[in-house]
């Protein structure tokens, strides 16, 4: 680490210097070949290479970085011991933050940064910076080395008696062939297969449409022209354990469009006086699509910009989605509340192989 | 001048000229653009509000929305939009629209509140619609910001972002930032569904729910609410944050790597 060694290392560099010069001069004189290799440019010494005092200064700077890093590590341990976990301090310009988090981050960051900065400064000022060209070597080993390896292998095979003791060999192959089976058996945990779960939601004939905001069943007159409402099936408790699993499939968005403006015949038949109920789950990768533009009746998915036309059976207008949003057939019951006429006719959400 | 001429082949010269040209064009436009103050005579009596509003309407609105509010190819029908829609659209400067575009943006208000009230009274007389909310509706004494946050995330956050920063929609439309919108105008927007936004009538989000949403927005966007992450980069999420990380984060790393491998200061040739 001493600068004596550093400057000693640099002595051969100075000796190489004239050689580089020679090489350069040599190619330059061969004027007849315009594409001749010009060789390396002449090496120029750094201040630290010629001035021992400058090298000493660099050494001290590097040592200072490493010392600061050591102190910062000590500071890290001290902060861990000193600060209680719930102490909040005000640090400009960060605001109110945890004293423990702030000091741990600051000291560890400083410790790591100083090691890096010291190493970089060391490399830039003291380590040799002489340009060298390294020739490529063939990857293949020497013929003698290869012959020796093959001979060793044959001898090892003979000494282990692998060829002679057939029982040992065969049982070993058997054991090694069977071990991976344990991994194959564990793949069972990827299952069980979803069976028909992907094709069915909680919606069923006669289930009321419950307003997500008010927890009250919706009436058709609640959905005014240009409004947007979200509904879940009656009986699904938002605090139940399987709520997220079920709402992820059953989430429903409701809009009202002038029946004359609904272009798709089946969509019109499945609506009630212009109230349309569509799945809120994008058919691309299952994001909730509900960026509804009420003037155009387009609904946009925030993830990949798939755009669906709710006035035309939720046909895909743009983006990567492969299917229209499934529509839920709705009607009203005798009390005037909106109710489902059954489950979605097709699987909601992203496509899958067996979807058809 | 000679100095300037000497630098005309500098690599950055084209950029400097471009910036000057842009600044000059923008400045000239601002200075010379017609300030179309479409102001009409102020009305006085509230009993005459509808009549006065009709006069204002004929001057400022009828060219697009039709002489009787029936709408035209340039503007939708105003029958049944109610006083709240007028108070929002005119009160935030969105109407009268400056030019046909994807979406009429917020701009300086052209009418004073008395004129807006007269216009609202006239439009409300065309057909039944939501009234301008009163203070107890949009700024109730008791509100639940936590419940409002839940409602906001279910109904509003898909377009307006988690704390109302807004975001992009299709074909140049966008959901605006809600940070500097007055409570009354937020309430009116939920009630009437301006432009691309769907409406949320009381049957979808109750009056109390709307008050809670306003309380939530006030809580998360107020001066007191902490921003522990520091500068929020607009709060838009991955687009601005990713751009920052790629341009500045990686840019600094590339610059440092170049510097580390660069030639160090050489000793003077002796």
UniProtKB/TrEMBL annotation, chain A:
Superkingdom, natural source: Bacteria
Gene Ontology CC terms, in alphabetical order: plasma membrane
GO function terms (MF aspect): 2 iron, 2 sulfur cluster binding; metal ion binding; monooxygenase activity; oxidoreductase activity, acting on paired donors, with incorporation or reduction of molecular oxygen
Keyword vocabulary terms for this entry: 2Fe-2S, Cell membrane, Disulfide bond, Electron transport, Iron, Iron-sulfur, Membrane, Metal-binding, Oxidoreductase, Respiratory chain, Transmembrane, Transmembrane helix, Transport
InterPro entries per UniProt: QcrA_N, Rieske_2Fe-2S, Rieske_2Fe-2S_sf, Rieske_Fe-S_prot
Function in brief: Iron-sulfur subunit of the cytochrome bc1 complex, an essential component of the respiratory electron transport chain required for ATP synthesis. The bc1 complex catalyzes the oxidation of menaquinol and the reduction of cytochrome c in the respiratory chain. The bc1 complex operates through a Q-cycle mechanism that couples electron transfer to generation of the proton gradient that drives ATP synthesis.
Protein name: Cytochrome bc1 complex Rieske iron-sulfur subunit
Automatic annotation (TrEMBL), chain B:
Residues involved in heme c 2 binding: 156, 159-160
Signal peptide annotation: none
Topological relation to the membrane, as annotated: Multi-pass membrane protein
Residues annotated as binding heme c 1: 61, 64-65
SUPFAM superfamilies: Cytochrome c (SSF46626)
InterPro entries according to UniProt: bc1_cytC-su, Cyt_c-like_dom, Cyt_c-like_dom_sf, Cytochrome_c_Oxidase_Subunit
Protein location: Cell membrane
Superkingdom of source: Bacteria
GO CC terms, sorted: plasma membrane
Keyword field contains Transport: yes
UniProt KW keywords: Cell membrane, Electron transport, Heme, Iron, Lyase, Membrane, Metal-binding, Repeat, Respiratory chain, Translocase, Transmembrane, Transmembrane helix, Transport
Transmembrane feature ranges: 243-262
Modifications after synthesis and translation: Binds 2 heme c groups covalently per subunit.
Reaction(s) this enzyme catalyzes, per UniProt: a quinol + 2 Fe(III)-[cytochrome c](out) = a quinone + 2 Fe(II)-[cytochrome c](out) + 2 H(+)(out)
Domain Cytochrome c stretches: 48-127, 143-221
GO MF entries: heme binding; iron ion binding; lyase activity; quinol-cytochrome-c reductase activity
UniProt main location, coarse: membrane
Subunit structure: The cytochrome bc1 complex is composed of a cytochrome b (QcrB), the Rieske iron-sulfur protein (QcrA) and a diheme cytochrome c (QcrC) subunit.
PANTHER family: CBB3-TYPE CYTOCHROME C OXIDASE SUBUNIT FIXP (PTHR33751), CYTOCHROME BC1 COMPLEX CYTOCHROME C SUBUNIT (PTHR33751:SF13)
Protein name, per record: Cytochrome bc1 complex cytochrome c subunit
Organism: Streptomyces oceani
